[in-house]
Amino acid sequence: MPTSGSQGPFRSGTPWGRSRSIVFLGDREVKLTAKEFNLLSHLIAQSGRVQTRDALLERVWGPEFTGDRKTVDVHIRWLREKFAGKAPFAIVTLRGVGYRLDRLGSR
């Protein structure tokens, strides 16, 4: 657990003038890019609800994003790699629909 006075399991800061975000799993620090942090934060806030790729692009990347739509898939894969078997949640793919974050034991 983060030390007393911290911001819970999610913290964001700019040490060394470089943007970075940190999530704690117990005592273990998991470093995320700003985009990974924002994506995970959004999925947690919408826990149990399906999020389409387009909705994620708009809410996390912004309505002006003009890059490849598959960037969502890549970022989801990176989050899964960082949290697989270690977190109290799973990011589920609903083929042809989108993604959903399930808290383990809730489905």
How would the global form be characterised? globular
Task: Report the C-alpha radius of gyration, rounded.
Answer: 14 Å
Order of helices and strands: EEEHHHEE
How much β-strand is present in the residues?
Answer: 25-35%
The overall strand count is 5
What is the strand arrangement across the widest sheet?
A: 1-2-3
Q: State the helix count.
A: 3
Give the uncertain stretches in residue-range form.
Answer: 1-8, 12-18
- Mean of residue pLDDT values: 83
Q: Which structural category do the helix and sheet elements fall into? A: alpha+beta
Q: What about the largest sheet? A: 3 strands, antiparallel
**Distance between the amino and carboxyl termini:** 25 Å
Helix content: 25-40%
